[in-house]
Design goal:
The protein contains nine helices and 23 strands. A hairpin with a 2-residue loop joins β11 and β12. α2 packs across α5 and α5 runs antiparallel to α9. It is of the alpha+beta class. The chain has two domains: 139 residues, Alpha-Beta Complex (Adenine-n6-DNA-methyltransferase TaqI, Chain A, domain 2); 194 residues, Alpha-Beta Complex (Adenine-n6-DNA-methyltransferase TaqI, Chain A, domain 2).
Length: 385
Amino acid sequence: MKIRECFELDPPKNTNKYNDFVNYIDTSSVNDGVLSNVQYLESDYPSRANKMVKSDDIIYSTVRPLLRHYYYYDDCISHAIVSTGFCVMRNKNTKVLNTIFAYYFLRSSEVITYLNNVAENSQATFPTFSKKDLGKIDLPDFNYEKQCRIAIILSAYDKLIEKNNRKIAILQAQAQELYKEWFVRFRFPGHKTAKFENGLPSGWKICKLGDYANILMGQSPESCYYNSNNEGLPFHQGVGSYGEWYLQDDIYSTEGKRIAEPNSIIFSVRAPVGRLNITINRIILGRGVAGINAKDNHNGFLFWQLKTTYAQEDLIGNGSIFASVTKDELFNQKLVIPNDSLLCTYDSTAYQIERQIRLLYLINKSLTQQRDLLLPRLMSGKLEV
């Protein structure tokens, strides 16, 4: 069976009909089956927010297949509208084809490679394939019962990953809420008896980021040194490889002089300016990012102050087309530093939370690798179920 025989591809009369609000899912909102950064909009909907989705739909980005912007929609949010950059796939007969089985097949490296080759040969501005190209793909010839068994096996991994992601989100919220409670609302331990001077508790101070932390601006090595074979060190030059919490190491370089050590804060200095991440390993810093480390080693406190300050991206920086920030601008950003006791207490708490997040992240990484090893074997029929 071909995809076009089993799915309606961009069903007709499926445009946005909501007048009160929408939850808009852009292509950047999904990454390898994970949904994040959904935009709640009450008015001024972008023209791309025009495709309705229903439970059991698959949304599949038709631009740059290697970025893996696809998602199985199970009615997780109301009034969902997706970008016109997606092809909406709606199962014609759920008694013949298991949608989740088809979704996992479309995630396989074989399909991604095929679609990428088609996209690279397109005449569009960006590598793009059409819904006709998608419709030509043949599905594995498995009976319905086998499809369901495969779907159950693979989705079990994703359910564990999703559960861990929810735990990570809770831990992130705990660290940020504690920061705001202590350092924004000033309801820190002992606040009732604290004295204030010039709007700050006694013993607190305002300083420049460059005085409190070491800042290393990135400098991209020549492209001839890049590779995807794990040779050299991971190379990062922008938010494209940021992931949800830690950097995703996709490109490596055998040359690079600007290196960030493990546990460094990574700050995006090009649009979107201010997006933050953390390094697990040593990395080469490209031109679009900077590595930041507190001189007193309190990176936990520093990370959450920056995260709170730059919750809205592109607050700083200039640029005729895209926002960017210079080293001097970054150096001169103001920080509020509490007394040593409070700083150490919060940093210790943030450190413990980050370690829990890191453990869950590494577990998810292992689960993802196991699932991706199983996927081609199940789809090829080499592994019986």
